[in-house]
Amino acid sequence: MTQNTEAFRCEDIHVAIEGKDVVKGVSLSIKSGEIHALMGPNGSGKSTLANALMGHPSYELTAGRIFVAGEDVTDMEPHERSRRGMFLAFQYPVAVPGVTVANFLRSALKARASDEAEMRGFRKSLLAEFESLSIDPVFATRYVNDGFSGGEKKRLEVLQMAMLKPKIALLDETDSGLDIDALQVVSTGINRTVAQNAGVLLVTHYQRILNFVKPHFVHVFMGGRIVRSGGPELAAALEEKGYEWIAEEVAQGAGAA
After folding, report:
1. What pTM was computed for the model?
2. Which one of 78, 136, 187, 257 is most buried, counting C-beta atoms within 10 A?
3. Tally of domains within the chain
4. CATH (domain of 185)
């Protein structure tokens, strides 16, 4: 993909959890090389949207379509969406005892690779990513997220993203619980992915990570909808004034309508 081509698009997405509508009509287009920040208060449905876009079975897509590089992936299983170039970094990555990081990544890449030739440089590529992300290579021999700190889990998510080289990366609160050192490592990984022409949807509560990962667009998510979109200045305004002023404006607009 080249920059300015469409990496991802969703149209009028509605999502329900146990029969309750949580996401209520979201449309969004992300070009390759673009960073979109999705910000909003707790309980607004941001994580639900990210998981549903990836096809998580706990989230029911009741309406809407999802496209990756122009291809409709709406009816595909999560692993098929991954093969088409989607990636989801979890807010709470799970542990996989007994499976080493190296074997996990090798299996993930093999599932995506079109032939064995793509796997020949696996070890060299993995070591290069460890170095570029300032991650101790001993991680390769540890079991996936087993006994990892919060920061280590998030670094591993970014390492997976670096190895898989997605077309669109959905990052669900990747910055939560990180100290400044881990935040810088994670941000470096995100910026390198964008430099390789991936599109990024970065779900976050806070402006802090946006000091390191500069978004092209910022969207405010409330009540299951995008209620305001703008540039980086919108994130700065949210940091200064919180979300209440936007909630009031939305309520006033609804009243006027």
Report:
1. 0.91
2. 187
3. 1
4. 3.40.50.300
